[in-house]
Design goal:
It is a single chain. The chain is of the alpha+beta class. Helix 11 runs antiparallel to helix 12 and helix 12 packs across helix 13. The longest helix has 53 residues. It is globular and about 60 Å long.
Length: 454
Amino acid sequence: MRDQISRSIFLIAAFVAFDTGGCTKSRQEHDAQQLAARVRSEFLHAWKNYERYAWGHDALRPLAKTAHDWYGQSLLMTPVDALDTLILMHLDDEAAKARLLIVSDLSFDRDIYVKNFEMTIRLLGGLLSSYQLTGDQRLLSLAEDLGNRLLPVFNSPTGLPYVYVNLHTGQIRDPMTNPAETGTLLLEFGTLTKLTGKPVFYEKAKRALVETFKRRSPLGLVGQSINVDTGIWTNTDSHISGGIDSYYEYLWKCWLLFIDKDCRDMWNASVPAVNKYLADEIRGELWYGHADMQTGKRTETTYGALDAFFPALLALSGDLKRARRLQASSFKMWNLYGVEPETLDYKTVRVVAGSYHLRPEIVESTYYLYHYTGDREYRQMGKTLFDDFVRYCRTDSGYAALADVISKQQRDEMESFVLAETFKYFYLLFAPPETLQFDKVIFNTEAHPLNRIR
């Protein structure tokens, strides 16, 4: 009898524990769904104001309620950059309207000099991703036309690309560039090769990546700036911030997307040097600073909004322990003033550059870490980020960057990446995993998901 009572008590306790766990999980999912809906609603607020005040132009100035075009002529930067976000959020009417605008009005036959790097990650990446999501051949045709017009940038003595190209004449200019701009092209150009069957795109972009890698120092580091005519470094400062950041990102991602063993080998030869010379321990915290590429000597103890992509890359490459620690530092930087500064001296905890450009990198890393760990801490972190983002940056006419994170003074800027990346990563963090099958795509550095094609 006593055994039967004990067994009954055990079964009841087990049922209660299971039921409580189920309820807790259900409540967490309900909260996540509500947050996803809220992100979608706020994205729609930004998009509708773009439609109202800047339709057909590159970007919205949310405070002046006017349009802004990068080169004096519109290349539909925001519609192209945001189209796959519209599709993933199932904003079907808005997506259809944006796609019609793109296929009807977008022309790259323009007598203007454009920046190859930005055209590649925003427009080429956006067109390719949206083509893969819709199957609309007109988007692929636009992507191929753009790719052909960008190819002259690679006509340098080293194979490293020039910074600017004229879309109409093919003339190139500006040989002073950096590893991010020479090495952040293969995901897009390689996907264009896979979809068109034309190897020239893959070959040119891969050579640029390899030529950048070949010029690393004996320590295994690359510098801040390089001359594409001579291949000589003009600034030997090494870091993971803007100007270098996505070079490392593409080494690993091109291995994953194309199973290109050269890219894997270049990553394996590079990341140990990054972790050895750039990683920095301060107060028991992990940060990444600056060092001279030739000597490894520390040159700056600065880390910022752009550096905050690195936990995502560490997680993607399997280094979860380091990714978690660095994400904690990024979140600490955010919490100093409720919004991250562009640059922080992590040694003195002093803001070096106090602007906030609505950047996506810390959100991207939060999303990756939640995907790989399933730890609800990262969704809670994402909620904090989003609450602050809305509190300080929302305006009646969209979302505005901040001139200063301490005063929270807004600045008249809402770049296309806010809709392409920041809102997308917030949404995917809270949306059900079937919204996008993470393991079947690779995100380019502008958050455009590209299908893994064998």
